[in-house]
Structure formats: C-alpha cells, structure tokens
Amino acid sequence: MINFEKLFYLCPGSNKSIMKKDPKDLSTEEKIKAAARKIFTQKGYSATRTRDIAEEAGINLALLNYYFRSKEKLFDLVMLENFGQFISGVRALFNEKDTTLQQKIETVVDFYITQLKTNPDLPLFVLTEIRSNPKKLQAKGFSKDLLAQSYFLKQLSEELKKQKKAIHPLHFIMNLFAMTIFPFISAPLIKTMGVGDLEFSNLMEERRKLLPIWIMKLIQEP
Amino acid sequence: MINFEKLFYLCPGSNKSIMKKDPKDLSTEEKIKAAARKIFTQKGYSATRTRDIAEEAGINLALLNYYFRSKEKLFDLVMLENFGQFISGVRALFNEKDTTLQQKIETVVDFYITQLKTNPDLPLFVLTEIRSNPKKLQAKGFSKDLLAQSYFLKQLSEELKKQKKAIHPLHFIMNLFAMTIFPFISAPLIKTMGVGDLEFSNLMEERRKLLPIWIMKLIQEP
DNA sequence: GTCTATAACCTGATAGAC
DNA sequence: GTCTATCAGGTTATAGAC
Fold first, then answer.
1. Inter-chain contacts counted by CB atoms under 8 A, chains A and B
2. Residue-wise burial string across A30-56, b where 16 or more C-beta atoms lie within 10 A, e elsewhere
3. CA neighbor of A123 nearest in space, from B131, B195, B174
4. Does B13 have pLDDT greater than 60?
5. Distance CA A211, CA B174 (A)
C-alpha cells in the first residue's frame, strides 16, 4: 500500500486539505471562496453571476469586490485551485521511485474515482476552461516535462519494450485517464438511459477494481 | 464493409449532409446558422454574444432576430443539430442485424474519429449543455431504450455470456466511447505536453486501428 | 468589515428608415 | 430583407453611510 492519502493533501482546495469546519466558523473570505468554487465549477465563468455567489455565501454583493476586487480575479483563484486539485496530485505520484507501474495505475484510478464521486463537475470545468484559455496552464507551471521527465513514463516505456510493443506510450496514458474520467463526464447521458444514481455509483466501484486489470492487460498482452 | 457513409447523412448539420457551397452562395439564414453553430459550439451559450455571431456571419445584429426571433431559439436549433450529429447516427448502426459485434465497434470508432477530427469541440459542447439542461434530451426523443432495446446490446451481452463474464455490459460501452472520445476532449492538455498538431493527428489514426482490437480483447479474454 | 444605493457598462431585442 | 439607432433589462463594480 502506498501513500494514497498524501495525494489528497497535495491538492489545494481539496475537501480533505482543510479541517472540516462548521460553515459559521469560516471567515467571510473563505465563505465567498467556497461559494465561488461551487458555482463557477458548476456553471462556468460566463453563466455565473456574482449575485449568485454572494447569495450562496450568505453575504452581500459588495463584499465580494471588497475581498477579491473583481469577478475575474476571484475566478482565476478558483480556476487554479480546481486545476491543481485535478492534476497536481498526480505529479508527486508519477515520480515515486519505490512503486511499480501497476501500483501507480491502481493509485491513479483509485484517487480519481474517489475524487470524482464527490466532485463530478471538476473535469468538465477544467477541460472547458483550458480550451478557452490555454495560457493559464503554463502560468501554473504546467509544462511538457511533467510527463516527459516522469518516472512513470520511464516504467511504462520499459514495460512496453519488454513486450516488444512499438506503440506510443501516450496511447496507454490516454486509455488510463479516458476510462477513469469519461464515465463521470458522461454521467448525465448514462443516467438518461435508465441507470439510477445508486447503480451508477456501484458501477464506478466495480471500475475501481476492473480498470487497473484492464489497463495492465492492454499494456502487457500481445 | 458496412454502410459507413450512411451514418454521415443521418446526421443533421453534418458537413457532408449539405453540398459544399461557396459562403457567398449561402442564404443569409444559412450563413447565420453556420456562424451560430460555430461560435455556440466553441464557447457555449452564455459566453456567446449575438453580436459575435452577427459579425462571424458578416451580417447585422438585427437580422439575427429577424430570422430567429431570439438568441435562445437560435441556440436550441443549433443544440439539437449538434446533439443529433453527435449521437443519432449511432442509433441506426446499433440496430443493424447483419453486422457482427466487432464490425459495429469498428464502425463506431471509425465514425467518431473522423467526425471529431473536423469537429473536435462537439463533445464538450454536448456534454456541457446536457448537464445544464437534461430536459432537452428527452424532447429530442432520446430515452433509455435507445441502448436497452438495441441489437448491439444483445450481441454484446451474448458475447459476455459466452465468455462466462459476469460483468455489466455498460462497462464495455463506457470503455468504447471513453477511449474514442476522451482524447479529443483533452487534446489541449495533451498538446501542452509537447505533442504537436500533426503528431496528435497521427496518434488518432493509430487509434482508429488499435481501439477495436483493444476493446474486443477486453470483452473476449478472461 | 458590512451594508444600501447607485453608477457604469454590456447585451439582447426592437423601431423605423431605406 | 437589410440597415442604423436606440431602448430595456440585467450585471459588475464602486461610493459612501454605519
């Protein structure tokens, strides 16, 4: 077993990164940020009105500007934290030296499924905002060597070489994230086809165990 | 080989469903619709200003309301066409009686990869709008029996039974669409990691061949 | 720090001339 | 059918009292 818990604490804005507090104990600033986070993530930048955030936070509209100056500044803050929560936790994991490839895959699947069960709106938010503003990625220090220099990629490449597979390792990384994240993104569609909330949740629990097996099988078998 | 081309013609709004015309030959109404389609799909409902659509169409703002009465009416039109393009084509395919499971999977992969190469913004648009307005789905006649009653599901279930796998068939359908669509959704992220446009395109071509093999392997092997 | 009131701006929609 | 000019409504941001 590896340091699974650690991932959560690495995520800025994670539920687990702050001690749980009674909403009444949060400072006004924190209340606004929490409300903004919730509504921005759900509806995106343009569809969110600062009035809604103020109401959700239980404070006055003017206070929002008092603390954060503008809607955009507040958004940038939330956006960076959401993005961090979505991806930064993986950075540390990718460079663990003392875990196998399979263990890393198990951890990624486990981490995201847990994360997305409580925060299903995150991927659509992150992907939409990245598309409409790719610059802010690099500002966050996100660059090509996050993956390229990672120990994870090294392990994966070696495994592929061992199997004599001349397939780009990126294919398997895409498969990993696709199979893990996509079901949550398309949940509204899946639920339209007669899958209830409980059944959906159960399916995701099954995937927690199935995905690592499947992904390893694609990597290892001829 | 099956009727692959047919799928395109079943898609309202598909590039292939209209003869290609010089933009100058399009009627004003068509020009507005095309512009609206482009900008709505790229930026979503709220972030789109009717002024932008008018400019893109090369006409005046007032004309937009003259032809379509309101922003929302225009959007609904585009939304239904986009949604149709994204999913309706599959309906017919799912009920072909004379193709094998594997052939259907090959066709779905082929269809979506071709579709998404020219229209990569479609999935994020469709998924975002479905989440914020699930009702419009049923209005379009989309219901649980699209999949539940399909011949595709029947074939898949039988194959699983033959392999004595007690795994919900939905898992494999999720895998199919996830592995096909997700790479396009996350393209901006992938390109940040040093993958150029050409390399990305090549990777997708490789997936056209690899995905059916992988998906069948997961279904068939123990 | 927090509120009310209001300024400044933006956006969708329409009136009316051509 | 197409345009210019403008209205009506809503949104962000600020001024100023407490």
1. 136
2. ebbbbbbbbbbbebbbebbebebbbeb
3. B131
4. no
5. 12
In 3-state terms, what secondary structure has residue A156? helix
How far is Cα B207 from Cα B116, in angstroms, rounded to an integer? 13
Long-range interactions of A213-217: CB distance < 8 A, separation 24+? A214/A179, A214/B175, A214/B218, A215/A105, A215/A109, A215/A172, A215/A175, A215/A176, A215/A179, A216/A101, A216/A102, A216/A105, A217/B217, A217/B218, A217/B221
3-state helix, strand, coil in chain B (%, to 5): 75, 0, 25
The gap between A159 CA and D11 C1' (Å) is 56
Which of A49, A51, A134, A8 lies closest to B187, judged by CA? A134
Place of tokens 């995701």: A204
Distance CA A24, CA A35 (A): 13
Percentage of chain B exceeding pLDDT 90: 73
Angle at alpha carbon of residue A60, lines to A57 and A64, rounded to 5°: 75
CB pair distance less than 8 Å for B144 and A192: yes
pLDDT in tens, B177-202: 999 999 999 999 999 889 999 999 99
Q: Read off the pLDDT of residues A4-25 as tens digits, 9 standing for 90 and up.
A: 555 555 555 555 444 455 556 7
- Phi, psi torsion values for B44, nearest 5 degrees: 80, 170
Task: For residues B188 and B211, give the distance between their C-alpha atoms in angstroms, rounded to a whole number.
Answer: 21
Which nucleotide does the CA of A70 lie closest to, via C1'?
D13
Banded pLDDT at B86 (limits 50, 70, 90): confident
- Residue at token pair 């930026």: B43
B144 closest CB neighbour out of A175, A186, A193: A193
Determine the residue of chain B that is closest to A213 in CA distance.
B218
For the question of whether the overall pTM of this predicted structure is more than 0.90, the answer is yes
Query: Is residue A59 within 8 Å of A48, Cβ to Cβ?
Result: no
- What is the DSSP annotation of A63-116? HHHHHHSSHHHHHHHHHHHHHIIIIIHHHHHHT-SSS-HHHHHHHHHHHHHHHH
Any idea of the CA torsion for B124, B128, B134, B137, to the nearest 10 degrees? Answer: -30
| Alpha carbons B195 and A143: distance in angstroms, whole number | 11
